[in-house]
Amino acid sequence: MHPAEYYQRDRRIHPPALTPDYKTSVARSPRLALISLQGSVSETTGPVFGHGDLNPIDNDLIKNYAKDGDPVGERIIVHGRVLDENARPVPNTLVEIWQANAGGRYRHKKDTYLAPIDPNFGGCGRTITDADGHYFFRTVKPGAYPWRNWVNNWRPAHIHVSVFGHAFCQRLITQLYFEGDPLIPHCPIVQTIPDPDAIDRLTAKLDLNATVPLDSIAYRFDIVLRGRRSTMFENRMEGN
Amino acid sequence: MVVDARNNAPHYLRESASQTAGPYVHIGLAPGAAGFKIFDNELGWDIAGPNAKGQRIRVEGCVIDGTGSPVKDVLIEVWQANADGTYVRHEEGGARVEEGFRGWGRVITDFETGEWGFDTIKPGKVNARAKMASGVAGKVRDTHPDWQGRADENHAPMAPHLNLWIVARGINIGLNTRMYFDDEAEANATDPVLNLIEWENRRATLIAKHSGDRDGMPVYRFDIRLQGDNETVFFDV
């Protein structure tokens, strides 16, 4: 039995390393070309996480740092599936998120924005996808926040998302944006992505069917990781 | 694979686009470092576990940007085999590695100095792909070694290495690289991935230096240069 092989990453979907409007990328981008490496077992395997690594409350940001009440803000559910490029679910994979609070302030010693910390909100969560690749989080919708890029740059509301997949070469960190946010087209980080359709796929859609009436609004966000390739011409006639 | 009903052609989804991990990556992936406790079990601090076979080592370094300055908000993930050269894996009924050996970890840099470091064990040799090892295109098939594949004339081993993945503010898509060991010169000389790098002088950017011992463990120094002079080799994996 061989580990799966993976489709080549289409780098035209992703932001290039050097994107001068996002200023920090200028000194932090390699100048030389990447060396293409056909996947060996070092790239086509990846870490395994189990439910023993997590607490059941870890995906509930309304409760996982609550001290004397719930956090302030728009209560939302973020849910979706982790799929590969073949539209197959990616089960049992770790999904981690982090975000600012409703006012756009991060609970991080380096964040000095004047909007206040919420004493009942930590801003991070994690979960493991189920057998169908499904995940969900409960949280509050993050606020926009200013950052020192151009003088008047504001990040759209966003949630950072980290996904593992089953191979180290599937490892991905991205950001979730919210449907209809007028800051999206103005953001130099969003606009590092050359393909408008790829930006649209990072935009979570309002999902009224998953909304809990009188409780929480839901957004749907599917995450697509690299697909596994069948190698039927070798000694794996079974394909995937 | 989904089939498009209109023309019966295969229809693939497209990978989600990467975005930078940003300045506050620690909140999500290392909240203790961000200054608060939230999870009972913060992941990534113990790569090898107490039962791991092999030589315990310390790896240290710094990530340096194009101005020569240390990057103080980087997060690095490590993926490695155990001392036998075996990886933990998802398929095939669980791992054939020691209990508690995870093979994966993550570290962040010191916010003041930019220095990072982790303890692990030195990995064993792992088998490469056949064609990369032999260089005989068309004669030897380019096969992927199986999980427990043994080295033979078609499957030369890769020298011991750690796979590293680097994310930070200003890095739009995680950077993959490898760390090799300077005291494995013989194995490095025939490593198929190092030999894939056409520019011989660039191979040295992937080789960590044994810089003495501490607490009975060899310490390896591995600085990563994102840009400019001696820019580290990064891979499209």
Describe what this molecule looks like in 3D.
The complex is a heterodimer of chains A (240) and B (237). Chain A has 240 residues and is mainly β. Chain A has one domain (23-27, 37-225): Protocatechuate 3,4-Dioxygenase, subunit A (Sandwich). Chain A contains three helices and 14 strands. The N and C termini of chain A lie close together (11 Å). Mean pLDDT of chain A is 94; it is low at 235-240. With 237 residues, chain B is mainly beta. Chain B has a domain at 39-87 and 96-129 and 153-225: Protocatechuate 3,4-Dioxygenase, subunit A. Chain B contains five helices and 14 strands. In chain B, strands 3, 4, 5, 6, 9, 10, 11, 12 and 13 form a nine-stranded mixed beta sheet that branches. In chain B, strands 1-2 form a two-stranded antiparallel sheet. A two-stranded antiparallel ribbon of chain B has the order 7-8. The longest helix of chain B is centred in the first third of the chain and has 5 residues, at 25-29. Mean pLDDT of chain B is 88; it is low at 132-140. Chains A and B meet through helix 1, strand 2, helix 2, strand 4 and strand 10 of A and helix 1, strand 7, strand 9, strand 10 and strand 14 of B. Strand 2 (35-36) of chain A pairs parallel with strand 14 of chain B.
What is the class of chain A in the CATH system? Mainly Beta
For the secondary structure, the number of strands of chain A is 14
CATH superfamily heading of chain A: Aromatic compound dioxygenase
Specify the overall morphology of chain B: globular
Structural class of chain A: mainly beta
**Residue-averaged pLDDT of chain A:** 94
Number of H/I helices of chain B: 5
Elements of chain A, N to C (H/E): EHEHEEEEEEEEHEEEE
Supply the number of structural domains of chain A.
Answer: 1
The low-confidence runs of chain A, each spanning 5 or more residues with pLDDT under 50, are: 235-240
- Span between termini of chain A: 11 Å
Secondary structure class of chain B reads mainly beta
Q: Give the N-terminus to C-terminus distance of chain B in angstroms.
A: 23 Å
Strand content of chain B: 25-35%
Q: How is the main sheet of chain A built?
A: 9 strands, mixed
Global geometry of chain A: globular
Domain Intradiol ring-cleavage dioxygenases (chain B): 59-87
Protein name (chain B): Protocatechuate 3,4-dioxygenase
GO molecular function, one term (chain B): ferric iron binding
Organism (chain B): Paracoccus sphaerophysae
